[in-house]
Known about the structure:
Pathway: Carbohydrate degradation; 2-deoxy-D-ribose 1-phosphate degradation; D-glyceraldehyde 3-phosphate and acetaldehyde from 2-deoxy-alpha-D-ribose 1-phosphate: step 2/2. GO terms for molecular function: deoxyribose-phosphate aldolase activity. It catalyses: 2-deoxy-D-ribose 5-phosphate = D-glyceraldehyde 3-phosphate + acetaldehyde. Keywords: Cytoplasm, Lyase, Schiff base. This is Deoxyribose-phosphate aldolase. The chain is an alpha/beta fold. It has one domain: TIM Barrel, CATH 3.20.20.70. Helices cover about 45% and strands about 15% of the residues. The chain is built from nine helices and eight strands. It has an eight-stranded parallel beta barrel with strand order 1-2-3-4-5-6-7-8, surrounded by seven helices. Helix 2 links the parallel strand 2 and strand 3. The mean pLDDT is about 100.
Amino acid sequence: MTKPLNKYLDHTILKPEATEDQVRTAIAEAKQYDFASVCVNPYWVKLTHQELSGTDVNTCTVIGFPLGATTTASKVAESQEALTDGADELDMVINIGELKAGHTAAVQADIQAVAEATHAGHGLLKVIIEAVLLTDDEKVTACRLAEAAGADYVKTSTGFASGGATVHDVQLMRQTVGERLGVKAAGGIHTKADALAMINAGASRIGASASVAIVTAKD
Length: 219
């Protein structure tokens, strides 16, 4: 590992039924354990940013989530509002149907528009490819398009599809982007052993709601 385990972790609370108290608890946990970020739905960005003021824990949110099939204009608007509200990192979902149809120019343009908005707002962009829905060839194509479009990271999953991160997918994504982009593994990572397996496979960030259990687990 190139950094402490806690700094690999995006402490995630994205369930639609999450209440303000639950979001505040996640923020407090992130401050206590000094995670890389707290990842919340856009509604909670302003609160999260305010509560993390004075810490080195970033505010992360999701764009076009979880389906990726919103319009590019709506993704850009969502990104701009999130950045204005204080988001440091945006995790956007690609247009999965367009990727599977082979409409690569549309997929790249969608990512690029969000990347430009993100970087104009001094943010970091992670691109969710939803690997469980893709063939290996499609995963490689998605990663290449994300890189060409100016993304900072590629990410395995939303955690809302039928499967999450796998060691195979992380290895494939890392092999595709080399050291040029970050790779975030998310979805189904519940234990320290899970997290370490993803890091050893090439993940530079981990998305998990079980972050506290991961960092407090006995070796």
